[in-house]
Amino acid sequence: MGLFLKPASETDFPRIVEILAAANAQDPWMRIMKPGQPPPRARVKTIDRFLNEHLNDPVVEYMAVEDSEQNELIAFARWNMYRKERPDDEWKKEPNIQWDEGTNEEAAATFIRGIFEKRQSIMNGKAHLLLNMLDTHPDHQRRGAGRMLLKWGIDIADKAGLPIYLEAAPAGVKLYGSMGFAEVDKFDIDMATWGGEGIHRHVLMIRPAKSV
Q1: Which of 1, 2, 119, 205 minimizes the number of CB atoms within 10 Å of its CB?
Q2: Which residues of 14-29 are buried (b: 16+ CB within 10 A; e: fewer)?
Q3: What three-state secondary structure class fits 170?
């Protein structure tokens, strides 16, 4: 009994979006990009978007951690599995962004464009795994769920001899560093531009390719 790792199923996505919203509420930059809790109709659109990726995008893998005693998901990760080198017309393509209702679109666009440009310059079309999202519900943090989700991707990357790339929010840097990731760059946002305070930093990190 306890926590177990599993591939996300179609019925898991309402809870995944609930976890994402709760985790975002803890982050000052995410509170600027997505002020307040999204209304139910906005969550439905996000659920549909995530589910469509799960069902139709062969690159995307959603993994989840469930608490078997409480019979509910407590964490999830979204991985992009770029197992082969990609041509320029694929990796240089601008992301097709669908803003969820209630998003501060100006702030979000600034962030997404900046992160995307950094990602292009560091990884370009190389084969690698991208950890796109990893979130644990605040009520279940420090139970090891994030480490379980991360280890799943590390095991795959090591067997394939691929590096892993991610953009770490401040709360995740210590965990990623303990799992072999090293900082290669950073991306700073001045939150005062949108009524916040201070600089919010995302640390860009790579775990080099290894073989087992």
Answers
A1: 1
A2: ebbbbbbbbbbeebeb
A3: helix
Residue with tokens 């209304």: 39
Give, as one character, the DSSP assignment of residue 192.
Answer: G
Amino acid, res. 180: G
Taking the C-alpha atoms of residue 62 and residue 136, their distance in angstroms, rounded to an integer, is 14
Kindly report the backbone phi and psi dihedral angles of residue 183, in degrees, each rounded to the nearest multiple of 5, phi listed first: -70, 135
Say if CB 80 and CB 60 are below 8 A apart.
yes
Alpha helices by DSSP H, 85-200: 88-91, 105-123, 145-160, 173-178
Closest CA to 156 of 185, 119, 127, 136: 127
Residue 30: name the closest of 100, 97, 104 by CA. Answer: 104
Count of C-beta atoms within a 10 Å radius of residue 178: 10
Q: Which two tokens stand for residue 109?
A: 């666009």
pLDDT greater than 90 at residue 170:
no
Q: How far is CA 132 from CA 116, 165, 175, 195, 197, in A?
A: 11, 9, 16, 27, 26
pTM of the model: 0.91
For tokens 């659109």, what's the residue? 45
Q: Which two tokens stand for residue 158?
A: 């090591």
Confidence tier at 1 by pLDDT (50, 70, 90): low
